[in-house]
Amino acid sequence: MKSGDYVLNATLYGAPISGFSAAPKVIQIFPGDTSPQQSSITGVPYAGQVSVGVVTPFLIIARDKFGNQQRPKLNQLLPDVFEIDINLTAVDPLTNAIVPPLSVDQLGSLIKSISVTDLKDGTFRVLYSTRRAGYYAVR
User: Fold this and answer.
1) How far is CA 123 from CA 17, 33, 80, 104, in A?
2) Among candidates 64, 71, 55, which has minimal Cα distance to 113?
3) Is the terminal CB of the chain with fewer CB neighbours within 10 Å at N or C?
4) How many CA atoms lie within 13 A of 134 on its CB side?
5) Residue 78: pLDDT above 90?
6) What pLDDT shows up at residue 22?
7) Bridge partners for 136 per DSSP
8) How far apart are CA 93 and CA 47, in angstroms?
9) What is the average pLDDT across 48-67?
10) CA gap 126, 58 in Å, rounded
11) What is the pLDDT of residues 117-130, one digit of tens each?
């Protein structure tokens, strides 16, 4: 179902129902729970677009199972929480050479650098910074 504003007009056999005003009512249908399968990521940089030590952004677009983009809901008890996994790839895609894993310090620094900010419009800004050159996978 598409979220948005809908007009509700309740009648029984074409006649207004007692207790329900004859004027149609505008109701708002909000998106359902966020679906990982329908949500998407945009703005992830390609090879050569990220520099060591520079904060790099991308966006998560949260959608429900029908593809409706999320929007703020007054009755939402818990906000969406996204887990971001960014790690150095195990194999260099250009040379097929095995890449040594990040050191504990490098991995810790990368994990600490990741921040997710709810932009209150169904999108979430993700920022991260690497301390070592290489090819990274974002999940």
Assistant:
1) 41, 14, 10, 31
2) 55
3) C
4) 21
5) no
6) 65
7) 88
8) 10
9) 90
10) 5
11) 999 899 999 999 99
